[in-house]
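User: I'm designing a mutation panel for Tetratricopeptide repeat protein and want to avoid disrupting the core. Could you give me a predicted structure to guide residue selection? Please restate the sequence first so the numbering is unambiguous.

Assistant: Good idea. Sequence first, for numbering, then the predicted structure tokens:
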Amino acid sequence: MNVSNNKSGSGKNAFGALAYLVIDDFENFRLSMRHMLRSCGAENIELVANARLAVQYCTYNHVDVVLCDYNLGEGKSGQHILEELRYKKLLKRSSLFLMVTSDASREMVMGAREYQPDAYLTKPINHAMLETRLGSLITQRSALLPINREIDRENYPEAISLCIHAIPRQPRYKTWLMKTLAELYFLLGDLTHSIKVYDEVLRQRELSWARLGHSKILLTNHNYDEAIKNLRRLIAAHPDYMEAYDLLAESLERQNKPRQAQDILERATDHSPNALLRQIHLAELAEANQDMDTAVRAWRRSVALGAHSIHDSPAYHLALGNTLCDLSEGDTGTEGAQLASEAFSVLGNMEKRFSDNDSLALRAQIVQCRIYAGQEEAHKAEAVLDKIRPALGNPRALESETDLDYAKTLFRLGYGDEAKTLLNDLATQFFDNPTVLKKIENLLDEPVGFRMKVKARRLNRDGIEAFESGNLQEAASIFTKALEMIPDHPALNLNQVQVLMKEYELDTANKNLLGLCQHYLSHLAGLPEQHGQYRRYVALQRKLKALTL
């Protein structure tokens, strides 16, 4: 099959062969657009006023050209429509989506561009503008239709063949053809041919998409340093090229540099604040980095952006409620009370918004219980706990996220034994799920609030620094303070044992040091073999036994 050289692409018959959808909340504009399209030769034109009708129409009808206003009043915007149509695959690759707007603000353009509209039309629109802009896109659509048709069918080898044959015959569209060819090779896992295409393009001209694709292959081949170097250079030259930020953050995460990855995503969200999935990624990364202030800002933004997005989820509301709960814990002043109040509000709104989800009320109450406890309202916390205990008691099918959250709440309210029993049951059920097991391990290691956890981790870092610099007594004192907060923490206990053993090597007459070592090791008597610190625990036990002989 060859790509046809359709000479009628700019004629009125080309307009007439296509199906159009005009989306605008003002009837006069819809009628005006229909009149202009008809004067260009279009015949099959549907007019709708809002996102719901637009998505509904595309669900049951093929549409070749969508002309959508960005600002549709209350509710979903043109960006949300484009996002949903792409997500649900209701548009073919050959379909054209034109964003119509009277607001060409940077925030709007950056947000809409995340979902790759084919063009922007700025109001007011006249016949000449529409015919010229749309006519050019229709001509390209017609020329590339056979390739896009095979890609829609996921017949990638045939699409590759068509691209190769079209490159010398369609020089006008060479850039599109080369980009598509490289992407198709990548989809098939043929990285060698894919990178050859990108290299050929880059030898002729430094194009952002080619540099990004080249970096993507470097990342796939685990060449992280070179990928990061290329992506940093790309961002410096093109600071609005958002895909580069996402790939750079991914590269840094793979190098175990989560703090640097977070910094990159923060820069990206400053440039384009309306990309929901990137805000979620930032929020999760900030949480992992214990940067709860950034996490709460990103979760707030995620909840707001999700209100009209196809990607909306109660998980964002729960995450925001949990983060606000952590930040308010132990702060009974004005700021803490405000954060707690916001957390209650977020959880209440979640229950209303997702009222068809029966488990959400239970999840919300688990968090509410911790909020009360963190604000030193013990009676209210206990009252909520008494209310939810029957629904969470055994026997029942354990649900990892709900039960982890419940165990966290039990720890906070002083029911440590009950929490440990629950986590043991959870570990038994999810023995083959490393993600769940790691979360259980983390909760058992640090069954304390956020602020105490951060303080203990800071002390741990300080203790390690003191030990490495030879200040053994200072290191022992620091680890003692940390263990007062989290007495059963494996790494802290083992760090303390190492310090004491080092002290004993310098003063073998001081047998009390060996007794202290045994004391700290006894805290870890029940440490499971699967725990990350288990081998170190066994090694230090053996060393202590040898020292006491």
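For picking mutation sites, this is relevant: Strands lie at 19-23, 44-48, 65-69, 96-101, 119-122. Residues 12-150 form a domain with the Rossmann fold fold (CATH 3.40.50.2300).
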